[in-house]
Amino acid sequence: MEENRAKLIAAARKAFAEKGYSAASMDDLTADAGLTRGALYSNFGDKRGLLAAVVHQIDGEMAARAEAIGAKCDDLWEGLQQQAAAYIEMALVPEVQRIVLLDGPAVLGDPSQWPSQNSCLQETMQAVRKLNEAGRLKPCDTEAAGRLLCGAALNAALWVAASDDPKTVLPKAIEAFRLMAEGFLAKRP
């Protein structure tokens, strides 16, 4: 069963990236996976369920990549900034752009409610908590700050993906995110 799930997710990922969710045919998708529509229905319920699984997989990969980039920084604050910038920058990756940032919200609804976004939120809140404990931030509620930072990065990525000129919008989005995030920093003597 796991092998069938993996085959269907791989075929869907390819089809959704190349054709988009609407144009991807379930018959072509299942044929590419060497399976039947019944396998799709029993594993995912429907095409929408398959999209949710593909989005979850890609979003998880995005989070892991952003986390790895942030972890390279010695400074927790700079790591958090690098992580957000990496996430926003992934809006230029065609597969991410089309599946996660354009088709995903159109079909699955508000990305902030996706289960995969919860892990990003938890990680951001943990960083905010540590920064608060170290006195690096103005006194603020950990959950509120985490939600706002995650939401800002997500919305910046959505903006980049939906723009007519993503490469021009990207640096503007990252700069605005940094300026907004710096508002949380405590003033240093």
In short:
The protein is mostly helical and 189 residues long. It has nine helices and no strands.
Task: Give a description of the structure.
The chain has about 190 residues and is an all-alpha fold. It has two domains: about 1-45, Orthogonal Bundle (Arc Repressor Mutant, subunit A); about 55-180, Tetracycline Repressor, domain 2 (Orthogonal Bundle), CATH 1.10.357. The chain contains nine helices and no strands. Helix 4 runs antiparallel to helix 5. The relative contact order is 0.11. The model has no long low-confidence stretch (mean pLDDT about 95). This is TetR family transcriptional regulator. One of its GO terms (molecular function) is DNA-binding transcription factor activity. Pfam families: TetR_C_41 (PF21351), TetR_N (PF00440). Keywords: DNA-binding.
Question: Any key phrases for this structure?
Answer:
2 domains; 189 residues; Tetracycline Repressor, domain 2; Arc Repressor Mutant, subunit A; single chain; 77% helix; elongated; mainly alpha
SSE diagram, text form:
Elements: H1 2-19, H2 26-33, H3 37-44, H4 47-71, H5 76-89, H6 94-108, H7 115-133, H8 142-162, H9 166-182
Helix pairs in contact: 1-2, 1-4, 1-6, 3-4, 4-5, 4-6, 4-7, 5-8, 5-9, 6-8, 7-8, 8-9
Organism: Endobacterium cereale
Protein name: TetR family transcriptional regulator
Domain HTH tetR-type: 2-62
